[in-house]
């Protein structure tokens, strides 16, 4: 009944663009850092959860809500500055074509992403997918109760409900382990991008 798409790493190749901003923000906030492999292992996680986990690993303590907010604000700013120089991330053409084809066939498409809405909307627009995924057809982890992002099924359930479908009647396109788990737990058919 619907096609549900992750965004970062599935529709746009944004993951390499985000990595430097995470570590640059970490230098400004208590020395948090991660390797490239660790960064990709966080794929699909909600950003506040990544920040909290990274803080536990690097500092050995729980991060306050204020720390998480400040860290993510810095990450958002640094990502914007970086993209002002290098441009937005490139579209992943094959997956974008699949989304367009579903829509052309009358099948609703919805984005289900852990990304920040401001980045998601800008990246989809720059990739020529703004009309395929208008703001009202995007569900982010921030739209869910705290702690209910991927790998929990909620984001795919909400994305399906947005178009009047049950997640078990949908196909989900994903690139990350947390996303696969979330989609499977929601009952979706899953395509590994």
Automatic annotation (TrEMBL):
Which Pfam families does the UniProt entry name for this protein?
Hydrolase
Put simply, this protein is called FCP1 homology domain-containing protein
Instruction: Kindly list the GO molecular function terms attached to this UniProt entry.
Output: sugar-phosphatase activity
- Name the source's superkingdom: Eukaryota
